Amino acid sequence: MIHSLFLINHTGDIILEKHWKSVIGRSVCDYFFEAKEKAVDPEDVPPVLQTPHHYLISIYKGKLFFLSVIQTEVPPLFVIEFLHRVADTIQDYFGECSEGVIKDNVVTVYELLEEMLDNGFPLATESNVLKEMIRPPTILRSVVNTLTGTPVFAEIQGVIEACVRLTGMPDLTLSFMNPRLLDDVSFHPCVRFKRWESEHVLSFIPPDGNFTLMNYHSRGHPVYVKQSISFFETGPSGRLDITIGPKQTMGKTVESLKVTIHMPKTVLNANLTASQGNYTYDLATKVLVWDIGKLNTQKLPNLRGSLSTQVGAPKPEDNPTLNIDLKIQQMAISGLKVSRLDMYGEKYKPFKGVKYLTKAGKFQVRT
Amino acid sequence: MSSSSAFNDEKGGSSSVGEPEYGHDPASGGIFSSDYKRHDDLKEMLDSNKDSLKLEAMKRIVAMIARGKNASDLFPAVVKNVACKNIEVKKLVYVYLVRYAEEQQDLALLSISTFQRGLKDPNQLIRASALRVLSSIRVTIIVPIMMLAIKEAASDMSPYVRKTAAHAIPKLYSLDPEQKDQLIEVIEKLLADKTTLVAGSVVMAFEEVCPERIDLIHKNYRKLCNLLIDVEEWGQVVIINMLTRYARTQFLNPNMNESLLEEGSGGDKTFYGSDEDEDDDEEEKDKKEEAHAMAKRKPYVMDPDHRLLLRNTKPLLQSRNAAVVMAVAQLYFHLAPKAEVGVIAKALVRLLRSHSEVQYVVLQNVATMTIKRRGMFEPYLKSFYIRSTDPTQIKVLKLEVLTNLANETNISTILREFQTYIKSMDKDFVAATIQAIGRCATNIGEVRDTCLNGLVQLLSNRDELVVAESVVVIKKLLQMQPEKHSDIIKHMAKLTDNIQVPMARASILWLIGEYCEHVPKIAPDVLRKMAKSFTNEEDIVKLQIINLAAKLYLTNSKQTKLLTQYVLNLAKYDQNYDIRDRARFIRQLIVPTEKSGALSKYAKKLFLALKPAPVLESPFKDRDHFQLGSLSHLLNAKAGGYQELPDWPEAAPDPSVRNVEVKESVPEWTKCSSREKRKEKKVEKPFYSDSEGESGPTESADSESDSASGSESGSGSEESGSGSESEESEEGSESEEEEEEEDEDEKDKKKKKKQELKKPVQESESEQSSEEERKHQRKMKQCKSDTESESEEEDSESESSHSESEDSESEVEVKKKKKAAESKPPSKPVKKESKKEKKEMSLLDLDDFEPTPSPQVTPVNTFLSNSLVTDLEGLSLSDAVLSPATIAPSSALKSYELLHRITGEGLSVEYCFSRQPFSPDANMVAVQMQFTNNATSETKNLHMEDVKLQSGMRVKEFPEIELLPAGETATAVMGIDFCDSTQAANFQLCTHTRKFFVSIQPPVGELMRPVFLTENEFKKEQGQLMGMNEITEKLTLDVKCRNEHAIVQRVTTAANLSRVPCGSDKECRFAGRTVNSSSLVLVTVATKEEGAAQLTVNCEKMVIGTMLVKDILLALTQ
């Protein structure tokens, strides 16, 4: 299945290679580099490439390319999903998945890869199983019994992330106040499908550590911020005026509010004033970032000012899109509420806790 | 300096142990030493006896490997540490070995013994890791060792070790494909494993080694379906993909009726419909087809196994693993009834919120799906809207999906969405959007004008690329109805002044040329302008200018004659030969000269022919002939190792092949309760269950008869008894069945007779369940066991003959048979033959009396002569040697099913290895086949065709059986040279109407023939077959198999060997030679106290030896 793996940084250096069958020369990556040259953005590199003798399937994560070499038919999603699992495992082991971390722990990463695949077929991909075989660099084994769920809402999409530190074989049942809100769900393999289908509760024996218990999708409207934007031009300069306001946040404060605008190429500079927060304009990438922070509902934050455009250049034909990031603590905008968590099979009393969080994932406003 | 340091280093490298500090001097190694001394410090660390130093060294080495640096020169130093006690060091050494063993094969062998030891470790994790590393070392020399290790691990107690064995199979296969046969055996064994841990891995091995052996799946199908949800995610993907293929070969198309109906009522008339209208020409044929169609239109009933698969995979749509979701989605797309496919849409849409790489793959598949099943994704239209942050390739794919989803109702929404996309800054994406608009316009007539207008507006866009793309698309659209749009053409003509993109210019010129009659005034003017700029144009534009000139010359020569001449002259001296050629060609065609040929008359027709409008098709059309979710589908090209998704079969293959376990257990249970005394025997005989689909009751009947035969015949030979006895019980059940079904059955008289005769049996067997299907099998077996049961008591004999006579025999014949049976016993002592030979004899006799009126069956004769020959041989042999004590008891010939009655549409075929020499060719194994025609009509011209064999194998076909009347049975003998391998011989069995694919696979024991050796000869030969050629196994004999007689009987049943006389009563010896190569096969069973025994097989052919050990072991322990 998966023949070899190359980890490549964004400048095109191979920082790690691993072969599960016979060794394949690095030159196979040249085809990938060629495609990478062509792509404007690293994200634009096609995930699947065909070369005369091999197929290359790659993902881009943490400013790194995980490039796998395939020789025969295999479902591409199989490989992609596995590569993401590799990246997640590295993240889980070392706290982040980056070039530096991998270079520092090259032996451990290599050993992990050895364990995760056998002859190119996944062997052990669960982080709790792997940790039994290869110890993570810091041995921090607290015996605190906690389970915290942090439903994060992004564009009507949520996840329940669990952090479980329970000894023995606890059998947990998590029930919701309003499971009907959940429209489409996917589960960690430990969850029993049957119970969910019949009773809409999550019944599972959890693995140790952090894991994503459930992904869900629920109906609802993802608009929490209203905006009034006028973006027009007169001659060589343009004007910009953006106001952000809250909308149905149920009294909770909107935090970490941030607006990102990709300006047209002709905009040379921006001269703006922000009533709250501060803004930066990157001349090279033409990205305007307005970091607002906490949203003040009394005095709505506003950003206005002029944009200087290239002299003689035609006026940009369309207005740029606004990308808005935000976070709402203590609330899951989906309205999902955890009702209770019960534990069976073990005698001790666990510590339980739940944390709700809403954040915008890909919130775009077309102007 | 340099020399001295090198000296030091070398010394340090070799002697080392006490003084590791040598290597720590970085100056000496780093600066001066040449390559081969580069790693001396590491070598010293590895040679030290401190684990910490070793670990440090190994870490540095592995880091080198990870960075792609060459560390192969350290191999000798590293391999020494393979037996290191420190687990951390050991692990890293393994990592190193796996990486470099291939390059250093000889040195790698040093480590093998460590792994072999590891394989025997009590700790399962150590066993597994030893096997893993051993199988990962790609050194051809150790293939036999790997093979043995895999086989052993496949029957390990720990499922984890068995999983590792499954993983090792493809490794060994890629190292040495010749091991395929043996590996398939291991796969078959592991497929039967019931743990979830193993399932995924073994199916993966199956897919890599023998994906074509779909027959191995039958018996495991239901188990796999039921285990699926608990298998680990990666295994799920592999299993689901394999089961999709399996289902396509075994079940009927659930949408069969729908597609037929669609065809019938669809816009384009099918030939069924049209035929009905005409109905003069080929009325008969027509009717046939009608009937055919009607038959197909019969209400479709889904096979419960098909349903099982759909039901058990559905919850996996909720898996967190995108690959699993995709696998289920493709399974539903390829296998589910139309109405049910919809469930996958939601799950696939969910995947669109995953990583962009996942989106990319999912969208490709959704794009293919939307062409066939648009409705499914329509509710999720908005999920395919494009975000400005999407990577270009995702945008283009989403566009594709949106275009596929467009219909009359949603087109306005989609077009509005497209409009916003056109403003995007990503120009490739804008171009794709314009193309998409064009496709919407061609597909949906209502919006064609709207789209066209929109596109025309784009012609005034500032961006030239947008304009160019629009021109190209407009050109395609205009071709559909040019007359209505002369104003657009005019507008475009004006654009030639501004637009510089060659493709767009060429498109405009082509348009004007093609429709110059619609714009008679403008066209010459455009040509004038173009003539002016001709030399500066791109080639593609130049070609179109020539075209335009030619077309104008033909329609409007007055105005354009000179211009055309001018253009052609310019072209004549162009640098590009294409253009020069084109100019010359066109000049000849259009300009009339004296020499101009006949063609110029047709110039107008040539140039101004009506051209069909281009069809704008999705690039994803027809991609669904690739299995969705596969790499091949994504690339739209067959990737290496891709397994085609077969078309649905016309008629469903026999569903009972999947039965065995499930069905078997049910009747057996009920029976257990009713006859408890027989219970303990039941398990022993897996014997017939393999060859028969639903043999539950039959099987137990078999085993039950064991006890009976044991006591009745007093021979103590259970297996020989079983054949005949089972038939007895079968008969009982059968007659009972018939009682129940009396109304249906016509042959009342005969039955009465029979019932009278069988009364006692019936009474004892009255609880037999009555499944009709089994009947025929039984009949078959009766015939066969008739031939085998001769040595039994007369009672059973006569009964069996009755049963055989059931259909056609007269009582006279029965009597005749009785006589025959009676006449037998006295002949025994006279002939002084071994029981086995006697069996052969009786076989012969029976054949002689074979009452089945099948005189046309010629093979019988040849068969007879064969058996005569052996008989004679046997006689001479036995005369010479055997004392009565060493009589090798006969073994019932095991019979196998070749063709099931249902699959064969009434024709059922069984075969057995008759153990006779095959006279036409001594290298062949004789296979006796018994054909029974259970159908109501006769079968003609039974013969075989299209024999597919592994290299070296040969087949001597049986003579054609010209006629097999209904209800009759015929026997024929064929010879197969298996080349001393257990590879199956595949061929087609043909009747006058049908062909059936069948295969014959020999048990290893049938690949040999008995030879006679004296004790001394045996010992001598054995002495020459030691070492690798000797395999010894310890075993505990089955309780019922502790006497010499039973052992001899079981061994000779398992393999076609003859007994070798032996002085010791603790040892039984057997000898034979393989049929093809005449390699000696020597078997020794030495018994010890309390059932302990030791089995030794000596054989030149190691493979045969190993397999034989397995078979005999099984025979003796069960």
TrEMBL record, chain A:
<keyword id="KW-0813">Transport</keyword>
<keyword id="KW-0472">Membrane</keyword>
<dbReference type="GO" id="GO:0030659">
    <property type="term" value="C:cytoplasmic vesicle membrane"/>
</dbReference>
<comment type="function">
    <text>Part of the AP-3 complex, an adaptor-related complex which is not clathrin-associated. The complex is associated with the Golgi region as well as more peripheral structures. It facilitates the budding of vesicles from the Golgi membrane and may be directly involved in trafficking to lysosomes.</text>
</comment>
<keyword id="KW-0968">Cytoplasmic vesicle</keyword>
<dbReference type="InterPro" id="IPR028565">
    <property type="entry name" value="MHD"/>
</dbReference>
<dbReference type="GO" id="GO:0005794">
    <property type="term" value="C:Golgi apparatus"/>
</dbReference>
<dbReference type="InterPro" id="IPR022775">
    <property type="entry name" value="AP_mu_sigma_su"/>
</dbReference>
<dbReference type="InterPro" id="IPR036168">
    <property type="entry name" value="AP2_Mu_C_sf"/>
</dbReference>
<dbReference type="InterPro" id="IPR050431">
    <property type="entry name" value="Adaptor_comp_med_subunit"/>
</dbReference>
<comment type="similarity">
    <text>Belongs to the adaptor complexes medium subunit family.</text>
</comment>
<dbReference type="InterPro" id="IPR001392">
    <property type="entry name" value="Clathrin_mu"/>
</dbReference>
<keyword id="KW-0653">Protein transport</keyword>
<dbReference type="Pfam" id="PF00928">
    <property type="entry name" value="Adap_comp_sub"/>
</dbReference>
<dbReference type="Pfam" id="PF01217">
    <property type="entry name" value="Clat_adaptor_s"/>
</dbReference>
<dbReference type="InterPro" id="IPR018240">
    <property type="entry name" value="Clathrin_mu_CS"/>
</dbReference>
<dbReference type="GO" id="GO:0016192">
    <property type="term" value="P:vesicle-mediated transport"/>
</dbReference>
<keyword id="KW-0333">Golgi apparatus</keyword>
<protein>
    <recommendedName>
        <fullName>AP-3 complex subunit mu-1</fullName>
    </recommendedName>
</protein>
<dbReference type="InterPro" id="IPR011012">
    <property type="entry name" value="Longin-like_dom_sf"/>
</dbReference>
<feature type="domain" description="MHD">
    <location>
        <begin position="126"/>
        <end position="366"/>
    </location>
</feature>
<dbReference type="GO" id="GO:0030131">
    <property type="term" value="C:clathrin adaptor complex"/>
</dbReference>
<dbReference type="GO" id="GO:0006886">
    <property type="term" value="P:intracellular protein transport"/>
</dbReference>
